[in-house]
Amino acid sequence: MSPKQVTSLDLTNEVFKGPTEVVNKIAESIGLKHTKVIETFVLEERDLKIALQKQSGVFFRGTITWIGDNKTSSQGTIFCVESGSELKLINPNEENTKQVLLDMKRRIVNVLTEGKVNCNVCGKNIEIFDETASCPICNTKAHKDHLLEWVKMKHVCPSCEQPLKITDSGEIISG
Ligand SMILES: [Zn+2]
Ligand SMILES: [Zn+2]
């Protein structure tokens, strides 16, 4: 048996941790020209791609323009991705992603997505592109629209049933 050339590198743990770990590991393995601006790594060459896939196949692909910090959560990595004329922010994390693999030859970050958390309002999985919101008291998660609608109507959390309200800027706070 001839040794197989390693062409794929597991980045899952690094992506769940943060951008520094991700950029360092990619730079170590295939090189990556970037400029660091605070916690954001701007890629100098647009040659690193990302593909989001489910069991059924790839449903989104694009070119990574920067890799940065997830400000709203304590951990995680944000990929800013250009796809056609659109820029999208993608945040693979433990709740929506099974595995992240770097295809070293083709320079593609393959994200195998998997909704692991259910929305507390509609019961469906929260997927990678879904906007989420959580209860400030018990932290239960839901699709953002669904939780806003629920609180507007019932003024309580769907899970802990503590009183909640929505501020003028659309934030859900205890009330
Ligand atoms: Zn929902
Ligand atoms: Zn709650």
Features:
single chain, alpha+beta, 9-stranded mixed beta sheet, two-stranded antiparallel ribbon, elongated, binds zinc ion
Say how many strands there are.
13
Which stretches of 5+ consecutive residues score pLDDT under 50? none
Q: Rg, please?
A: 19 Å
Summarize the main sheet.
Answer: 9 strands, mixed
First and last CA, distance:
66 Å
Strand content: 35-45%
Bound molecules: zinc ion
* Overall tally of domains: 2
Overall geometry: elongated
Residue share in helix: 10-25%
The number of distinct helices, counting runs of at least 4 residues, comes to 3
**Overall pLDDT metric:** 93
**Order of helical and strand elements:** EHHEEEEEEEEEEHEE
Chain-wise SSE layout:
Layout: E1 8-10, H1 12-17, H2 19-30, E2 34-37, E3 40-43, E4 49-54, E5 57-69, E6 77-83, E7 86-90, E8 97-103, E9 108-113, E10 132-134, E11 141-143, H3 144-154, E12 164-166, E13 172-174
Parallel strand pairs: 4-9
Antiparallel strand pairs: 1-8, 2-3, 3-5, 4-5, 5-6, 6-7, 8-9, 10-11, 12-13
Bound molecules: zinc ion (ZN) (2 copies).
Residues 135, 137-138, 140, 157, 159-160, 162 line the site of one zinc ion.
